[in-house]
Amino acid sequence: MRGARSNARRLIITVMGSSPSPPRRDRAGRSSPRLDRETPYLRIEAIAIFVRDLNRSLRFYVDQLGFSLVFDPRLRSGQQFRGSHAVPQWVVVAPPDGASVLTLVAPKPESREYKLIGRSTHVFFVTEDVMATFLEWRKRGVRFSYAPRLRRITYERQAPASPPERGSAAPTEQTPVWGGVFTRFKDLDGNSFGLMGFDALSRELEAQRRAMAEKLESERRAAQELEIAKQVQARLFPQRLPPLKTLDYAGICIQARAVGGDYYDFLDLGRERLGLVIGDISGKGIAAALLMANLQANLRSQCASACDQPERLLRAVNQLFYENTADNAYATLFFAEYDDGARRLRYASCGHLSALLLRSDYSLERLESTCTVLGLFKEWDCSIRERRLFPGDTLALYTDGITESFNDRGEEFGEQRLLEALRQHRELSSQALLRSIVDDVRQFSPEEQHDDITLIVAKCREIIQSDISCSDAL
Questions:
Q1: What is the DSSP letter of 172?
Q2: For 278, which of 67, 335, 379, 397 could close a Cys bridge (C-beta 3.0–4.6 Å)?
Q3: What average pLDDT does the segment 331-340 reach?
């Protein structure tokens, strides 16, 4: 017996001293399956412990040892706790940490297994603090065979496969020490278990805790920085709407993530002119948000010097966007200049989705692309087109987050449903019309939002008499 224990001890030392890497564990400390498929996944699932009374033993393991009840087939079959005659005669419990479980089995008194009750199970529980567990369990009435004992063993490390190179200093050798704390306890039936704690286990758990704390702190900082970025980007969207006599307009952007790459804007161009802008940046998340901010800054900075010439304005924006972004970065953009007095809309669509112009007689005009996307080409030009708006006309600018929203059958919301929503709610104000369309999209696609939803609605209206100044009347 002594030789067997010595061999087992050497085996434990060898495994703990030479194992290339500890098993991966989840946040609860349980080992997680390997994903590399180098060898088949294999672990110990359950160990049978023979007991006399399941109800009595179950209370011991749950109440005194702090285990959890994993499975009780008696409850599943509709049976209640009725003593030793309940069938089936087993339950499954598990310690707070670890992948293996204990199956408590109550064999029949005349069976061979019944004679195994009250013997050493050769099962050891491992904890990082044996003394704390010992004191806690002893308060709960657990019977220990002896107080925890410290054992430390020095052992020889295996020689390296190849000697060090000539002239190189030999590393300082330290005698490896393996140690731990051990004790034993019994359950109510006299089944004996070991309780132990290894130095290496404590160091590993402490290292994992430090790594987890650092990870949580890093995630906290990242979340805080993302919230700041969200607030900053929200300020990039229009904070005020320049008043117009003949146009009722509004815009909205609902981002799929904390920040996104969709962009809309209303620019005061002076002399009763308004710039309506909507864009979609390539990519998602932080990268797209940075490009969105870059595009907005370029557009607003160039707007002051070239607002009378939309072609020149967009050429300058494309040049800056091309020079200040990566080769694969680009943006689609719809830019329109609305003249409040003439009710004239001049626009350029840079690879963007066709704007929808719903006339008062319910006819539809699509304002399609007039040039390619921004940012991909250094040599770039665009053409400007023009439309006249009349009272009752509705203009809708949008991104693909609206039309490409899909339901659980994989169907897209699409342009046709957007057009039907515009026709159905066209009597509403622009702000109310926005909300109605967004509600329709969300009812059609109630699951997680996958892309930014951005929409501008502008409605041409009659000039209200109160809006006319006295000087105009004269």
A1: P
A2: 397
A3: 92
